Design the sequence.
């Protein structure tokens, strides 16, 4: 085996360890193992055509050269994206800290208390600013958040109110574009109008209102909100959170739902993403809220503890009946935005908002004094200037001064001020307009007096106690110490690929040439980023065997939606309007069914065989029954059961024979890369999870990137964008996310990964991932049966362990096993998916043999504990399994029948032990007593 130097760092098991693992399985080499595991019929005949693997230094130099081709300048474009200052203490200790960016979604809340508290801060901040009681823990971007609001309006009426929804044409153009795409898919009629008036909402199911408008105008939305309510509809306000520091909250004005983006709260523009969007709702809409929601509950000792609330809304459980298809949100960026509010507090945010407004007011005054008309007399941060045919020359003049302005049309130029705007910047802008410079800010205000905010915000102590950097640094460290992330040990989650996120891959995202790019600067000023994106799209097409790729979808769920919309558009282009059925295997990930519904398709389930594979006989019968109505089948490969199904090519043939398309879910591409390409063995479209296979870190639940890859006949139906730098990609299918390239800011990560791994390195990574999964399966099979295997008794990159058949008779639950793993120093594998009472284990290629053995030894020790429970060696209900996880405070008053050593130190080691900050959390209590903002400090008073 030959691998580049970086690949040898990325792969955990050393060559000698690989040989030992192979011997355990009865194989002589990785090639022999893969030949036995991967069906011959799907194996690629040619090697991947990628550039030779680069060293870490060479890859960094290549990225530096690309960054040098970008000219961020000072962005004064606005349209929902603004320069901001990320406090260095937050950048270094969150955005660039693996304790934060390598964490997993907090489904095991006992070991996620730090990021859950940080998300609760974010929710509290959003709730305060919007004036609504419940906010979620982030959405993807403003455009998709507004689109989610459309579905909330529909769900709130239980789907009975099919009237159109009024949409404000004063929204940002990219938000309007996403709304159109999503509304068309699910059959919602939009009435687009300037909602400064009320007449357009008279007979609608709801209204989506801009506050402030994208062109800067601030108008009172109260009348439109009231008119919407009179019509029996819901009022959605799309708001700028920094403007809400200065303006009355939408909740106070009567809004039912508020959405927006927290980008300007310390999150770089990142050429369009990733950014944490938000949604807040009035009382009564909590269960319609999409995305994750952090709530407060209690642990086994009655102490307050955080966890995800109302999880039964999520697509994992409700599938096609879910509130949304969103699986990955923007947790890492939500944490940054929340901590930005913690860092500045209410007074700091007011100072920033006032400064922004004062700079805009000064610009307005200088232009008007010079006889140049501005469009609006009341605004927050944005001024639109009437220039009578001179827009191009003025924008060009400002660009020569390193300032980016927005050309609205021939006669209008838009200028937006931000946290970083200085008087010097204003004078450069005034120079472009031919106006004399100003020596000081005007001091005037142009906020409408009735809309000036007067209530207190951010009054919880968390926003007032961390004024010094020392205090904030220690707070961030305290929270990260409460969490378990990949920097502590293995996170063996099946289907989630929690593997190495190398530092060399991560470093470029903070470079200002990438981070400070506005997504709508001229293409020439983003040449390096565009080249990076186009190169990455070419590489992804090569490794998947497809003809074209779009990186616009900013999460796997959005990639699924984009792929299904491409299929739908393809059928429509051929006159096949009746094709609206999406076949979904019963074992599929919940987002598949939810995405199909969001694409306007009907879901028909295909059964699984006893071996866990798609039942091809049932598939044939279903295709015969529905024939010309079948649009597509969505199938995960390798299967969700962790097996290389030999019937995959036949499955593709069956669906193709009736005119359907084959969607190969790319969630498990980690088991194919370098060995098989879905575009070659029958797939028409796939989405890829760059936050899994290609090393973008999970970030505690986001950011993600979900590119969509398609065959040649679907290439014309990839996502488009009205402001795409390539004019040829501005029409047709529509926008999936708010920015042309989605979460472009984190694309240097997979670019660096592929560049440093090369074709052989990627192939070896797959081989070692499969080796590690089979090694774990072999070591644990006698203690916990492996439910599904393929030919030759092998699994793919993950295995499903049957815990229920072993633990159930002893009265031990799957939760007991998962929580007990915490005491052994592990994050639990995926629980009860896709089969109840199981653990799905994916060790990845990055874990070394010692860590694999440590996990296996822990699982074997837990099996021994289960046997002791079954033998009656513990008093009823008082076993280390039932008591897990054991928090440190239990030492103060040990109440168990087993020893402290057995409960707290099951491995015998006392050094480097991870201590869960809370005991087992009562999930049901938190749902019965819903609290989704920061609890008062008295909630954490010591128990009597």
Sequence:
């Amino acid at each position: 085996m030959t691998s580049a130097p970086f690949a040898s760092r990325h792969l955990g098991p050393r060559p000698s360890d690989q040989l030992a693992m192979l011997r355990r399985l009865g194989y002589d080499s990785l090639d022999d193992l893969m030949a036995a595991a991967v069906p011959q019929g799907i194996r690629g005949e040619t090697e991947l055509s990628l550039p030779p693997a680069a060293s870490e230094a060479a890859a960094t130099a290549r990225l530096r050269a690309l960054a040098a081709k970008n000219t961020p300048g000072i962005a004064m474009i606005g349209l929902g994206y603004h320069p901001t200052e990320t406090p260095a203490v937050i950048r270094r200790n969150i955005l660039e800290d693996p304790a934060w960016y390598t964490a997993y979604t907090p489904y095991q809340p006992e070991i996620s208390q730090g990021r859950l508290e940080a998300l609760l801060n974010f929710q509290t901040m959003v709730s305060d600013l919007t004036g609504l009681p419940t906010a979620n823990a982030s959405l993807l971007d403003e455009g998709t958040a507004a689109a989610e609001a459309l579905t909330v309006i529909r769900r709130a009426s239980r789907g009975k109110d099919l009237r159109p929804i009024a949409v404000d044409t004063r929204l940002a153009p990219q938000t309007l574009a996403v709304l159109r795409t999503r509304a068309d898919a699910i059959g919602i009629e939009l009435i687009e109008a300037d909602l400064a008036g009320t007449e357009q909402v008279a007979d609608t199911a709801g209204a989506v209102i801009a506050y402030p408008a994208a062109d800067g105008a601030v108008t009172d939305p109260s009348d439109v909100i009231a008119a919407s309510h009179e019509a029996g509809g819901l009022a959605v306000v799309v708001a700028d959170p920094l403007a809400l520091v200065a303006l009355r909250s939408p909740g106070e004005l009567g809004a039912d739902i508020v959405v927006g983006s927290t980008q300007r709260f310390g999150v770089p523009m990142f050429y369009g993403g990733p950014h944490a969007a938000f949604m807040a709702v009035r009382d009564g809409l909590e269960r319609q809220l999409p995305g994750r929601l952090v709530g407060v509950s209690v642990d086994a000792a009655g102490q307050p503890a955080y966890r995800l609330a109302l999880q039964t809304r999520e697509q994992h459980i409700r599938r096609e009946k879910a509130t949304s298809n969103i699986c990955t949100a923007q947790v890492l960026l939500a944490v940054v935005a929340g901590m930005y509010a913690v860092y500045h507090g209410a007074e700091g945010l007011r100072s920033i908002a006032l400064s922004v407004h004062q700079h805009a007011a000064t610009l307005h005054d200088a232009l008007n004094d010079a006889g140049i008309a501005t469009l609006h007399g009341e605004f927050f941060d944005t001024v639109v200037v009437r220039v009578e045919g001179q827009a191009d020359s003025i924008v060009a003049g400002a660009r020569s001064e390193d300032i980016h302005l927005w050309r609205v049309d021939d006669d209008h130029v838009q200028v937006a001020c931000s946290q970083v705007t200085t008087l010097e910047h204003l004078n450069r802008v005034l120079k472009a307009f031919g106006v004399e410079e100003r020596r000081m800010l005007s001091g005037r205000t142009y906020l409408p007096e009735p809309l000036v905010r007067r209530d207190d915000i951010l009054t919880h102590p968390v926003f007032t106690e961390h004024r010094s950097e020392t205090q904030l640094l220690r707070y961030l460290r305290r929270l990260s110490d409460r969490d378990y992330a990949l920097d502590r040990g293995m996170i063996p989650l099946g289907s989630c690929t929690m593997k190495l996120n190398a530092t060399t891959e991560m470093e470029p995202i903070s470079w200002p040439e990438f981070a400070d790019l506005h997504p709508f600067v001229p293409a020439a000023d983003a040449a390096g980023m565009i080249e990076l994106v186009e190169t990455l799209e070419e590489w992804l097409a090569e490794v998947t065997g497809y003809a074209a790729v779009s990186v616009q979808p900013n999460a796997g769920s959005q990639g699924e939606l984009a792929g299904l919309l491409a299929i739908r558009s393809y059928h429509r282009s051929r006159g096949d309007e009746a094709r609206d059925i999406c076949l979904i295997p019963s074992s599929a990930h919940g987002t598949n069914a939810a995405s199909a519904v969001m694409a306007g398709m009907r879901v028909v389930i295909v059964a699984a065989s006893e071996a866990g594979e798609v039942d091809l006989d049932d598939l044939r019968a279903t295709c015969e029954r529905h024939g010309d109505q079948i649009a597509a089948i969505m199938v995960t490969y390798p299967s969700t059961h962790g097996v290389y199904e030999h019937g995959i090519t036949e499955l593709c043939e069956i669906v193709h024979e009736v005119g359907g398309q084959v969607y190969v879910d790319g969630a498990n591409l980690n088991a194919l890369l370098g060995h098989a390409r879905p575009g070659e063995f029958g797939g028409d479209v796939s989405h890829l999870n760059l936050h899994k296979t290609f090393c973008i870190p999970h970030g505690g639940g986001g950011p993600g990137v979900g590119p969509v890859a398609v065959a040649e006949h679907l290439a014309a139906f990839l996502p488009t964008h009205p402001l795409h730098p390539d004019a040829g990609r501005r029409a047709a299918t529509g926008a999936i996310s708010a920015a042309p390239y989605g979460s472009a800011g984190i694309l240097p990560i997979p670019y660096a990964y592929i560049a440093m791994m090369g074709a052989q390195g990627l192939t070896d990574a797959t081989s070692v991932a499969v080796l590690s999964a089979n090694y774990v399966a072999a070591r644990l099979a006698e203690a916990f049966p492996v439910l599904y295997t393929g030919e030759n008794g092998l699994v793919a990159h993950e295995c499903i362990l049957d815990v229920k058949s072993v633990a159930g008779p002893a009265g031990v639950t799957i939760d007991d096993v998962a929580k007990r793993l915490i005491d052994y120093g592990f994050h639990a594998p995926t629980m009860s998916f896709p089969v109840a009472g199981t653990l799905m284990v994916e060790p990845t290629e990055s874990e070394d043999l010692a860590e694999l053995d440590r996990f296996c030894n822990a699982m074997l020790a837990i099996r021994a504990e289960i046997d002791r429970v079954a033998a009656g060696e513990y008093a009823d209900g008082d076993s280390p399994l039932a008591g897990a996880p054991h928090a440190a405070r239990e030492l103060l008053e040990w109440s168990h029948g087993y020893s402290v050593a057995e409960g707290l130190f099951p491995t015998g080691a006392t050094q480097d032990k991870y201590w869960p900050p809370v005991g087992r959390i009562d999930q049901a209590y938190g749902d019965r007593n819903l609290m989704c903002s920061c609890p008062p400090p008295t909630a954490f008073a010591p128990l009597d």
Observations:
- The CA atoms of residues 362 and 441 lie 5 Å apart.
- Residues 331-369 form the longest helix (39 residues).
- The chain is about 35% helix and 10% strand.
- The chain has a mean pLDDT of 94.
